[in-house]
Amino acid sequence: MADAFENILGQPQVREFLRATIAGGKVSHAYLFTGPAGSNKTLAAYAFAQSILCSQTGCGECDCCQRVMRKKHPDVRYFAPEGAGGYLVDQIRDIVADTSLAPIRAHKKVYILDRVDLLGSSSANAFLKTLEEPPDDVVLILLGRTRESVLPTIVSRCQVVPFRHIPATEAAGILVQNTGATKMAAEIAIQACDGSITKAIEFLKSNERMTFRSRILEVLSSLALADDWDVLTYAEDLVVRAKAPLDVVRASQEEELAESADFLAKSAIRQIEARNKRALTAKSFESLRQMTAIIRSWLRDVLAVCAGVPELVINADVRASIEEAAARTDEARAAAALAACVEADRALTYNVSPETCLDALLFEIRSTLYGTGSTHKAAV
Ligand SMILES: [Zn+2]
């Protein structure tokens, strides 16, 4: 049976549950989807929204379904934490105020709140009443990493829908089945996207991302012979490339703003502009994380070759450069370089500037793997 839930890959139980909910007309007012990053929660939330709003329970074809799918339906709202540490109380108050407004196109409104594990107690308090008893035409879908990481006062007011962790090999298999990609390409994309099938599909489709990956791998394979100036140039180039997808996001934001400028109040436009700015920051962060994920997977490959298990190499298209790097280093040093990369990833989440972070990481990888330029003490 083809419906909006068909695309919730790797989650058969979730799919059946949501199907039964729609078929039985038993949609409740608040859901909490729990599961690790990459378990398809966001996609499932949009599919569920489609089925709730579409007059044919999510046909996937009608104008309503198309709008939801393209994330352009005014009655499906998506929110992510806007503060560095999580949801801001003001942000929650805005959402609460918004729920009392009538739907624009459909008969109901769906609110998707991502990362509610980052909903602190004061923002949660501002939300509890709405969560318990939202207006009749509102459905709330909350997304969180684990049930335990979400405040109990939130959990107890929602119908909890658990998503399973999809192992990387299974995720790659799903990707092969659904995109026709080769097994190698699928594994590479899954590694670069930290296990997320949805992001991996985007990654495979994007020439720009594939070029980004090639450049990162090129830099890594050149490190052994690079002098300090080379390393600085590489880092600068990679940071510029990491920011490239922002142009696309910015263009679509401007287009959207131009479309709505006629009927929106100045204050509403300012709000959208502020939200757009935060979306750009999030996108840039995602791209940087993709870069460190690609570096990690290359280092893991070098480690696999050093450890005598070359069959575990994921980036098989650059096997020659991986073997060359492995020949210049050993297992312990490759493991140490990998640890440095995990550390750099953490530094990025603490808002260390990407330039500083990547400079330090490339120097660190070079000195750890090859013992050159070891006077440079990385500040990651
Ligand atoms: Zn439809």
UniProtKB/TrEMBL annotation:
Superkingdom of origin: Bacteria
Pfam families, per the entry: DNA_pol3_delta2
SUPFAM superfamilies from the UniProt entry: P-loop containing nucleoside triphosphate hydrolases (SSF52540)
Chain ranges passing through the membrane: none
Family annotation (InterPro entries): DNA_Rep/Repair_Clamp_Loader, P-loop_NTPase
Protein name: DNA polymerase III subunit delta
Gene name for this UniProt entry: holB
